[in-house]
Amino acid sequence: MMIEHYSRRKLKQENVPEEYLRLAEYACRRLDRCRFGEQKTSCKTCPVHCYAPHERDMIRQIMRWAGPRMLLFAPIAAIRHMLGR
Questions:
Q1: Model pTM?
Q2: What is the distance between the alpha carbons of residues 44 and 11, in angstroms, rounded to a whole number?
């Protein structure tokens, strides 16, 4: 959701660029394989950094921009995320 919003609003792209689609797939694969499973904390507080440096930088940039805007474009998802659900 954040990658799509970042692409449309920040990058001014009508469609999500291929590079960002690959990043979303990469993030999903990493989450699926996370050894902490359902008990996983947020990535910034996780003791294991499972993202490669380039992808970690890209995700960090996207989250830094889109995170604060989540309350405006996806308030229910933002509240669920803050409550840890």
A1: 0.82
A2: 24
